[in-house]
Design a protein that fits this description.
Elements: E1 2-5, H1 12-21, E2 31-34, H2 39-44, E3 48-51, H3 55-58, H4 62-80, E4 84-88, H5 94-101, E5 107-111, H6 122-125, E6 133-137, E7 156-159, H7 173-180, E8 188-192, H8 202-216, E9 219-223, E10 239-241, E11 255-258, H9 262-271, E12 275-277, H10 288-297, E13 302-303, H11 312-319, H12 322-326
Parallel strand pairs: 1-2, 1-4, 2-3, 4-5, 5-6, 6-7, 8-9, 8-11, 9-10, 11-12, 12-13
Helix pairs in contact: 4-5
Length: 327
C-alpha cells in the first residue's frame, strides 16, 4: 500500500497514516511518500519512506511542481507496483490526480477528516470523483461539523476515530513520569500548541508557563514539533519534550494545554487527561474552535481562545481541583 501524505503545518496527516500502517496485517507492506519534513518519524517507526519537498519549501512554481509530482508518482507506482494508494491531505494535488488518471488499475482512497471551515473547500471537494473511495475518520465533535464534507458523503465510509496508539499502549502515570524525569507527586503540565508555523501562540504560551510555575510550582513541559520553523525559546527549568508519539506519555500530566487538531484532540480526550483546548484559528486550518467548544459544552475540557487569555487562570485553577479532575 502506498501511503501519500501532504505536508501540513503539523504532522497530523502523517500520524494518521502511521496509525493505519502499523495495523496493516501481513502480507500488506506499507510504503510512504510524504511531503512532510518529519519523514524521519516514519523511518524511525520502521517503514520505508520516500520524501518529496512541497513547492512552498522549494520556492518553485506550483504548476511546475505539480508536473514534477505527477512524474515522480508515476515512477514510484511503476517501481513499487502497489494495488492501493491512500492519500491523507486536505487538498488532492493536481499532480496526484494526474498520476491516478494515468494508472486506472490502481485502487485509490482519499482519507479525509471532516470539520472543514464553513464555506471553504468548494473548489476541492469535487476532486473526490478521482478516487475509488473516501474514508472519513469520525470526529467526536462531529455534531458541530459545519463543513462541506457533511453534504458530500454519498461515497464516504465513516470509520471510528483514528488514533496512533491503543489505550494499552499508553504508559501509566508513574511509568510516564519516570520516563520524562518528572518528580513523583509534583504537579505536572504539558503545553502542546503545535508547530506555530501559521498561528502565534507565544503570548498565551508564556502566560501559561508563568502561571503554572509561579502560582502552582508545577513541572512544565512544552512539546517541540519536528517541523517547527522557529526554535522554542523557553525559560529555565521548563522542559522541551521531543518524544514521538507524545501521546504515549499523556498520563504523566495533571493538565494539558493543547491546540485542537484532529489527532491531539482525540488522543487527549480518549486518554482521559484534563485539558484546556486553544484552537488554531488560521483560516486554512480545520474548525478547531468548534472542537474546543464541543469539549467545553460537554464538560470534557475547556475552550480558551488566544484572544481570551483572561480565561486561562480560572480554568487552570478549576482543572487542578480533585473533584473536577475526577468528573
Amino acid at each position: 500500500i502506498l501511503f501519500v501524505t501532504s505536508n501540513g503545518v503539523g504532522i497530523g496527516h502523517l500520524t494518521r497514516m502511521l496509525a493505519v500502517a502499523r495495523r496493516c496485517p501481513k502480507p500488506l507492506e506499507p510504503v510512504f511518500l510524504t511531503l512532510s519534513q518529519a519523514v524521519r518519524i516514519v523511518r524511525e517507526q520502521g517503514f520505508l519512506a520516500e520524501y518529496l519537498p512541497f513547492h512552498a519549501a522549494l520556492g518553485c512554481d506550483p504548476q511546475q511542481w505539480n508536473q514534477s509530482l505527477r512524474e515522480e508518482l508515476k515512477e514510484l507506482i511503476a517501481f513499487y507496483d502497489p494495488p492501493v494508494l491512500v492519500f491523507d491531505g486536505n487538498v488532492p494535488y493536481q499532480g496526484l490526480i494526474d498520476a491516478l488518471r494515468a494508472n486506472r488499475d490502481l485502487w485509490s482512497v482519499w482519507c479525509r477528516r471532516g470539520m472543514w471551515q464553513p464555506g471553504r473547500g468548494a473548489d476541492v471537494i469535487a476532486r473526490e470523483r478521482d478516487f475509488d473511495a473516501v474514508v472519513e475518520p469520525r470526529d467526536l465533535a462531529d455534531r458541530l461539523d459545519r463543513g462541506l464534507t457533511v453534504h458530500h458523503r454519498s461515497r464516504t465510509r465513516v470509520v471510528d476515530p483514528i488514533r496512533l496508539l491503543d489505550a494499552g499502549d499508553l504508559l501509566s502515570p508513574n511509568e510516564a513520569r519516570a520516563a520524562l524525569g518528572i518528580e513523583p507527586g509534583r504537579r505536572a503540565a504539558l503545553l502542546q500548541l503545535g508547530a506555530g508555523n501559521n498561528y502565534d501562540y507565544a503570548t498565551l504560551r508564556h502566560a501559561a508557563i508563568a502561571l503554572l510555575r509561579e502560582r502552582y510550582d508545577a513541572d512544565v513541559s512544552v512539546a517541540e514539533w519536528p517541523i517547527a520553523e522557529q526554535p522554542l525559546e523557553l525559560p529555565e527549568r521548563v522542559r522541551a519534550v521531543r518524544e514521538y508519539p507524545l501521546s504515549r506519555y499523556l498520563k504523566a500530566f495533571d493538565l494539558v494545554i493543547s491546540a485542537v487538531g484532529y489527532n491531539s484532540f482525540h488522543e487527549i480526550l480518549l486518554a482521559g487527561v484534563p485539558a484546556i483546548f486553544v484552537p488554531n484559528e488560521h483560516p486554512q486550518q480545520d474548525d478547531q474552535l468548534a472542537r474546543a467548544r464541543f469539549a467545553e459544552h460537554q464538560g470534557v475540557g475547556a475552550c480558551v481562545r488566544v484572544r481570551e487569555i483572561y480565561r486561562l487562570s480560572a480554568w487552570v485553577e478549576r482543572l487542578l481541583q480533585p473533584e473536577e479532575r475526577a468528573r
